[in-house]
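Render this sequence as a predicted structure.
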Amino acid sequence: MSKHLFEMASAIVPAVGNHLWQSTLFVVACGFLTLVLRRNHARARYGIWLAASVKFLIPFSLLVGIGSHLGWSHGPAGIQTGLYVAMEQVSQPFAQPTMPGISHSSPPTASPSPINLLQAFLAAVWLCGFLAVLFVWFIRWRRISAIVGEASPLREGREVEALRRLARMEGMQKQIEVLSSHAPLEPGVFGIARHVLIWPARISERLEDPHLEAILAHELWHVRRRDNLTAAIHMMVEAIFWFHPVVWWLGARLAEERECACDEHVLESGNGRRIYAESILKTCEFCVASPLACVSGVTGADLKKRIVRIMTEIVPRRLDFPKKALLSATGLLAIAVPILSGVLHAMQTRPDSPAPIASSLGTQSAVSPVAHATTDDWQVQAGGKQSFEIASVKQNKSGGEFSNMNVPIAPGDVIPATEVSFREPMFH
């Protein structure tokens, strides 16, 4: 059992290394795109960072596999291209270590190598970290669930009336339940499929109607954008790849652009900048931030940067045609490049059509130069893998007519007679 675990770790660790390398390069490319769109709407940058997060859950090997099937369906075999070699070296710098001079069919050694021990140790460390992250988030989720369970539903009041009015203005048909809580938690949307608005009971008396409506509008946009769902997806990424610092940095970028996108929506709806900034500051004065990213509040991200951005009179630009074309081309390349790599890999290794070769124990078999065997099945049928110290093949120049081979390759095959001699056959 332990040997199988070591072999599994030896196969998984290089694959994980290649996947992290590819995903990190994808994050870098997304970073350059967000720099290009830094003066545009935050929702465009949020979509780019979200795509970078989802990439960690979708390895390029899946697209490469699709391309491999396409490459087997058509195209010549054995194509050598510099493009394929470059793509293979850049996308997969980590290869599974092999012992030189030892075939894969040789029996495993009694004791695992130090590399296998290291890989098994890394797998154990990853499992401990994965469980630790899940445990911390489970405790926080239970804490918020307890707050929701102790909260009382609000059926009427100026909070409910303002929420219903804003929902009708935004065209939202599904009503959101409002729960009044005595906990100091900030106003936030709880739930992924069924949304519930947690509203601190003592904050309403400190907010005027314009401030209250600005906060409710912010929370409604979290619901419309399904921010809890996308935040939960990235939390899964953080749990699986907890050891990768880029993943946590990516989470901070997602939280920043998410809040910035909601701020832009609220301001575009007609709310005043000063009133909206005051409502956020008053919320921060009397409430604490949500401990989970999948519970969308109003005080997330860097508060100072948000206030400066809200009070700045700069209006974000809409995406023009060149930038839309750039985003479309980048998305197509992200899908087409791994598929092309799979096509080239299949065309690189695709053998010609196999031909049946009859052989038996003690019979030397020859392979026609026109039809090659795809596997070593004929060697297995002959009793083992065969190798010869000396082999010579000479063309028949006697001028006689063609004759059939003494070993049939395919029905009706007629090829020039050759003189084939093998010396000292050896079986493994």
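Summary. Residues 147-231+241-311 form one domain. DSSP finds 13 helices and six strands in the chain.
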